[in-house]
């Protein structure tokens, strides 16, 4: 895939080298090294220049970043439910039951293979870079970088918790109040997959939850989750630790009478676009198996659910306010 970035040098950039200017925009050493190897990778006014070239006010700087196809990923002909796409970012609504990256048992049947096939049909070579990871049986918004510059910027944002993530899940039993769970997570001894809360050996893990509604008939609480860290199986482990496991979860034992997978959905993403510097919010509709768990009369609109019933509310702002209150207690 080819991505071309264009910048007009202003007075503040005059006298800077091209390399310094691009590094200030977040281009990593690795990305710049690739760009410099490409013919016509950096041009000023249409003429190829080295990264050491100096900028003058009004110069038009063009950067050409071209990449091939992902090694180790096989195409899989499976349709994509695209929630958002621009030149740098792709967000898809991942169905439950399909892993996101390829693995030993899923070299072809994975969302990475479906993305590769989607672009191959257009004749576009594509390198799949998953920014967010979802368990195979978790549905919802999956964030993918479309070039190595976007991947580097989004990776830094992920590490510094500048990508907001909201999940919806159905927990067993009645949860009455919001809670901030701070419980370190480690591998469970004797298991290749399972994790557990381990205060001595675990890594820091923090989850903020807000109960949205309770259904006495099913004894399930619809819960909104805000991740403050990103540990493997974090929500699932924390809910088991609380004594309110996600219903349907086979790994962290729970009832499986109403759904055959953990009832968890990556419902929304919020971040400042790393290249455009614009606010982005993306919502992933609930799949049928989770809609079936909603109490009668409750809207299935994801934004309305996340906003506590108000489709005009900003759920990220609301969780920020509740989180500030919880941390202050």
Determine the fraction of residues in helical runs and give it as a percent range: 10-25%
> Strand content of the residues, in percent?
25-35%
What's the rounded overall pLDDT mean? 93
Task: Assign the CATH superfamily of the largest domain.
Answer: Pseudouridine synthase
- Number of beta-strand segments: 16
Question: What count of helical segments does DSSP give?
Answer: 8
Spans of 5+ residues with little confidence (pLDDT < 50)?
none
Radius of gyration: 22 Å
For this structure, the CATH topology of the largest domain is Pseudouridine synthase
- CATH architecture title of the largest domain: 2-Layer Sandwich
> What profile does the largest beta sheet have?
10 strands, mixed
Total tally of structural domains: 3
Structural class: alpha+beta
Regarding CATH, which class of the largest domain? Alpha Beta
Order of helices and strands: EHHEEEEEHEEHEEEEEEHEEHHH
Oligomer: single chain
Distance between the termini: 50 Å
Shape: elongated
């Amino acid at each position: 895939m080819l991505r071309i970035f264009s910048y007009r040098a202003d007075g503040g950039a005059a006298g800077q080298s091209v390399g310094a200017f691009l590094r200030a925009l977040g281009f990593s050493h690795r990305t710049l090294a690739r760009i410099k190897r490409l013919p016509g990778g950096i041009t000023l006014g249409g003429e190829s220049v080295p990264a050491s070239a100096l900028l003058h006010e009004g110069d038009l700087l063009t950067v050409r970043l071209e990449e091939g196809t992902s090694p180790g990923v096989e195409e899989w002909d499976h349709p994509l439910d695209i929630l958002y796409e621009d030149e740098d970012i792709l967000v898809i609504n991942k169905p439950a039951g399909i892993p996101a990256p390829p693995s030993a048992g899923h070299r072809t049947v994975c969302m990475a293979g479906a993305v590769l096939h989607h672009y191959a049909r257009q004749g576009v070579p594509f390198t799949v870079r998953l920014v967010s990871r979802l368990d195979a049986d978790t549905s919802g918004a999956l964030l993918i970088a479309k070039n190595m510059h976007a991947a580097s910027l989004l990776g830094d944002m992920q590490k510094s918790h500048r990508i907001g993530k909201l999940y919806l899940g159905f927990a067993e039993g009645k949860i009455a109040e919001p809670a901030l769970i701070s419980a370190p997570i480690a591998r469970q001894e004797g298991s290749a997959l399972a994790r557990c809360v381990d205060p001595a050996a675990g890594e820091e893990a923090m989850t903020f939850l807000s109960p949205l509604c309770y259904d006495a008939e099913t004894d399930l609480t619809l819960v909104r989750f805000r991740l403050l860290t990103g540990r493997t199986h974090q929500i699932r482990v924390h809910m088991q630790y609380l004594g309110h496991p996600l219903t349907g979860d086979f790994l962290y034992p729970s009832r499986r009478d109403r759904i055959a997978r953990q009832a968890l959905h990556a419902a929304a993403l919020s971040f400042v676009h790393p290249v455009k510097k614009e606010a982005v919010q993306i919502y992933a509709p609930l799949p049928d198996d989770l809609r079936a768990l909603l109490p009668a009369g409750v809207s299935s609109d994801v934004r309305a659910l996340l906003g506590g019933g108000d489709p005009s509310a900003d759920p990220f702002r609301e969780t920020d306010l509740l989180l500030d209150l919880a941390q202050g207690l």
